[in-house]
Amino acid sequence: MTKVFYDQEAILELSDRVSYEAWLLEAIYNLLEEELFPTFPDGVIYALGSSNPQFIAHSRSNIVIGDWRPGFLEAGAPLVFTSTFKLLDMFLEWVLERNGHASTHRFAEKIKTLKGTLTYPPVVENRPWLQERLRCLYEAFEPLRGTIIHSRHFASVDGSLRVSSSKGGNVGLELQINAPALRTFAMLCVSVLRYVEGTWSLDPHKENLLRWQLDQLAHLHLMPALGQKEPYRTTVRVFLEGEDPRSVDVAKVRKDLERQYPQHSSVFDLRALQVRGETVIAAYLFPFAVLDEVGNLADASQYCMELPQDLDPQHYSTSSEA
């Protein structure tokens, strides 16, 4: 069998193919102020001298009266679905071509070939659970895409898409894809492309996020659930005295998070803030990937950061009630 190469030239070809659809999906959700991949301020705070965490809830909402954007998906759900399907289609077609199969517009041929032996790019090849469910989503959604493009057996209501397969003139049972599932489908496909391109790195937290997204779509791809708890990532802010920013009890923080979020698979980055007198003098940000070894780091200076702009004296002043 000819060896399949996913070199830089092949990756650039893929990126060129999918750039518009990936941009469109992210732009749609950004316009709605419902970014596919939002970030939030520090979510857990340990005040100076305290072992009890303060959990800070963050959320986003759009309250602009008369704004057209929140209602966009009511009419735009079919566009989001077809754009996401096209993104998945272009990716899988690229895989088929890299495996030596001729390009074709016949979905039935592509689906049949995808069920054979193929070599995927490493991010997908090394995760059979991912490639199997991507293929099943593709097969399940292909006739629905055909309905939206060629027929009128669908409706978009309150951000949900109700659509029936209408292949060969035979209208099947109606399937509902609600707004969260539609968003998850978009997130999943954009993420896979970014990991394959190498634009993003796939760490254990993001891998769990892919698994959880696939579980949210299990009623659509009809594969067994992977049993993944919803991943949660936050930044923990710890104020401490002394000269060693590595002296945080990481194991205790981890247990506190598990106790607070038992239904989630939690990870955290650690922001250590050194306090001298009544002043925060230095800040360090340790990513979750190094936390198990943070106490053994020979040099923490590479993790030194600028001081946060939202410091609250109540968290570090010895004259304040924390």
Distance between the termini: 67 Å
Q: What percentage of residues falls in helices of 4 or more residues?
A: 40-55%
**Could you name the ranges where pLDDT drops below 50 across 5 or more consecutive residues?**
61-65
Which radius of gyration do the C-alpha atoms yield? 24 Å
Total number of strands:
9
Q: Quote the beta fraction.
A: 15-25%
Structural classification? alpha+beta
Mean pLDDT: 87
Strand order of the largest sheet: 2-1-6-7-8-9
**What general outline do the C-alpha atoms trace?**
elongated
Enumerate how many helices there are, as a single number. 9
Order of helices and strands: HEEHHHHEEEHHHEHEEE
Any key phrases for this structure?
322 residues, three-stranded antiparallel beta sheet, 16% strand, single chain, alpha+beta, six-stranded mixed beta sheet, elongated
